[in-house]
Model the fold of this input.
Amino acid sequence: MPEGTDRGASARRPSARDAGEALLRVAHRLESLLAELAAEHGLTALEARTLRALLDGPSQGGLARQLGRAPSGVSVLTRRLEERGLVSRVSSRSDKRVRTARPTEAGLRVIRAIGAGLAERSPLSTRLTDPEVEALYRLLDALDRAPPS
Done:
């Protein structure tokens, strides 16, 4: 096994590469769990992430940035969710030409169900203490806010 890829990094000081690989493994576990929970509601993980992100009321561009998708792809996602009755499009209060997508009551029920499943089964909530979760969030948020290299 190449150096830095084994899980024995705890015997020595972990490198940035070790941390990155651990982060990718955990992200994969979380994505798999999200996909499993979303599938219970007939959604993909991306559709579930989209539905949850709509709670924050982002613009179409903001939603595209948050999901790492093109605005046209986000339009397709929100249209599919609307067709399933999980999202409704409403006119903006400030500009009636602009329509924003919001979760419906059915969408909110799905968001709550998936959130409960994540809280119950995610290693973030089952393996870490509250202070550890807070510290991890601060570290990940700092990385997320850093400009791309």
Q: What stands out?
A: The chain has a mean pLDDT of 90. The domain at 24-127 is CATH 1.10.10.10 (Arc Repressor Mutant, subunit A). The beta strands are 87-91, 99-103.
